[in-house]
């Protein structure tokens, strides 16, 4: 039998990035994001790490309010997580409960060493 265990010290190879513009109601946005959305995100299957940065400094282009980065072992794992039941629930929550406060955009990245 082949050991398919992933090395927890290995660098992730896939990332989902979401950038949020400044919310129209920061308090309501933050409350929902922290109390409801983050717990959903943390249920993504195979999620290795989730980080966020408030008010990142833009060196080129326009700044945004918050950037969230979620890491997986590989692109297939990331896609499976987004297509999962919790992935659909999380996307629906963002569209229904975060979009009224802030415009956001997301992208997936395949991480390769330069």
TrEMBL record:
In Swiss-Prot or TrEMBL terms, this protein is called Uncharacterized protein (TIGR02118 family)
Xref: InterPro entries? Dimeric_a/b-barrel, EthD_dom
Give the GO molecular function terms. oxidoreductase activity
Q: Which residues form the EthD domain?
A: 25-95
Question: Which top-rank group of organisms is this from?
Answer: Bacteria
Q: Which Pfam families match?
A: EthD
């Amino acid at each position: 039998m082949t050991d398919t265990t992933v090395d927890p010290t290995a660098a992730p190879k896939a990332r989902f990035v979401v950038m949020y513009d400044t919310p129209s109601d920061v308090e309501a946005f933050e409350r929902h994001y922290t109390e409801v959305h983050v717990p959903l995100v943390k249920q993504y299957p195979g999620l290795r790490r989730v980080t966020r940065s408030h008010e990142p400094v833009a060196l080129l282009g326009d700044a945004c309010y918050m950037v969230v980065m979620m890491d997986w072992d590989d692109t297939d794992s990331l896609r499976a997580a987004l297509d999962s039941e919790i992935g659909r629930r999380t996307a629906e929550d963002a569209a229904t409960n975060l979009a009224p406060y802030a415009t956001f955009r997301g992208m997936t990245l395949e991480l390769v060493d330069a």
